[in-house]
Specification:
Structural class of chain A: mainly alpha
Strand content of chain B: under 5%
Oligomer: heterodimer
Shape of chain B: globular
Distance between the termini of chain A: 44 Å
Order of helices and strands of chain A: HHHEEHHHHHHHHHH
CATH topology of the domain at 67-251 in chain B: MetI-like fold
CATH topology of chain A: MetI-like fold
CATH class of the domain at 67-251 in chain B: Mainly Alpha
Largest sheet of chain B: 2 strands, antiparallel
Order of helices and strands of chain B: HHEEHHHHHHHHH
Number of domains of chain A: 1
Distance between the termini of chain B: 44 Å
Helix content of chain B: over 70%
CATH architecture of the domain at 67-251 in chain B: Orthogonal Bundle
CATH architecture of chain A: Orthogonal Bundle
Number of strands of chain B: 2
Number of helices of chain A: 13
Shape of chain A: globular
Chain lengths: 298, 288
Amino acid sequence: MTRGATLTEAVITRLIQVSGFSAILFVLLIFAFLLREGSPALVEIPLPSLLGLRWYPIEDHFGILPLLGGSLVVTLGATLVGVPLGITTALYIAEVSPRWLREILKPMVEVLAGLPSVMLGFLGIIVLAPAVRRLLDLPTGLSAFTGALLLGGIAIPTIVSVAEDALDAVPRTYREAAMALGATRWQTIWRVTLPAARSGVLTAVMLGIARVIGETMTVMMVTGNAPVMPTGMGSLFRPARTMTATIAAEMGEVAKGSVHYHALFLIGVTLFLISLVVNLIAAAVVFRGRTRAERVLA
Amino acid sequence: MAAPALSRRRYAVQRAGFAGLLAATLVTVVPIVLIVALILWQGAPAISPEFLTQPPRQGMREGGILPAILGTLWLTLGTGILAVPFGVAAAIYLAEYAPESRWTRTIRVAIISLAGIPSVVYGLFGLGLFVLFLRFGTSILAGSFTLAIMTLPVIISTAEEALRSVPHSFRVVSISLGGTQWQTISRVVLPEALPGILTGVILGLERAAGETAPILFTAAAFFLPRLPTSPLDATMALPYHLFVISTQVPGMPLRLQYGTAAVLLVFVLGMNVLATLVRSRARARRQW
């Protein structure tokens, strides 16, 4: 081989290496820029105000607890909707449905994953919110509940695809052993397959929740955007305001470098850290499950 | 044979259970069909040549959505140009070069973290880095960079999977014929993995095309009837336009809202179908 070719090869290899490591760089870069713009808020806003119960930037109230509470209520509601539906759908697709039906169902769930969140928000305003208002006899349909219903739907594709992969990865022999012992398919699913796939299913749930916490446009459009501290289950049926919606709704109107601007970036830092923790836990569950499975098989 | 009564009951339970699972699946799937059908049905009457080729008029209450359609095309194109080479290179590194080491695990953790960052946080980051620090301003360029970094984890993970699915023996043969590692990758592995990579790229771009939050403060303009002339111009975009006309403009005709939603839906569904076609054609042709 000529020296020119060796040199080209070395350059390409180096470029590929650099790209490989770029993901680490980007995560650090994102965190650095959020901190750079967000940390001044910690100095500018006194701690009692920051931990106060009012978010009202015009009068210098920057309490982020109502926003945290709003995110919590909506996420909890969405989890109650999305997790049972997501897992049962994954079970049906992976374990019960005939092959031809599976080939139809899977792409349909993928379509849901591809629907822009702004479109679901639009339908939420036009169709779902009025229906919720009529059915539950609420003063307004733009409530945490409406948001939770839609966000549950948004979590479903993530939960289904990750949980289905986990169920698929359970070795065939497990199922055959259970059936050979006289278990029905139904018993096999609940007592053998699902327990064997539980770490993957748990990951699916965590990733679904992470998706919900970060969702922005849908919640901003349908939850009514009232930064009120939630108190009990009744809050689910009143307007709420999440952290994501606050950033999206207010960032366009603040002056760069103002206290309000820094406060919004500080919310961004909080969101970044929350999603980081949830995703890392989800990943850790997978890694732990994998090493345990490798031990068993070895 | 065990007691038949017990056996019958067990199968009755199974039938009921399967019916329950099917019911839950229908609760998940039927709304998806309804959503797509409703938007296409209600949106179709609004779609005319004028709607697709004219800028908005009368405070967006009349006219078309051409600037938003073109804006979304530009942003998607920009995202692709920036994210694809980088993402595929990163995937090649992970699939072909990376040793099993602490660093490689760190890269994987970083990719997982990137995939989990909320889209609006990408928007903040893009505002901080591209719009303000690098002085791109609110522009197609800043929006494309922001969307590209957001799309990277999708492209990396699907491309890596596609590369890994190419049988090891292909590489062994190429190396044994005197090919270098890069020759093996570029002439043997990449062509075989191409359909899989393409599928991932299209799905990643589909997501980028539908996103609103990352472009809110980096690229999107509320109302801009003239078309952007350079990458440093702000632009209208379909998802953001749908947000604007369904929440910010009072008295907006419902017809135009559905029409905009339908155009956006056709755009993302079209990419979805394209990805499915690429995947199934490649699967049918595959000989290993």
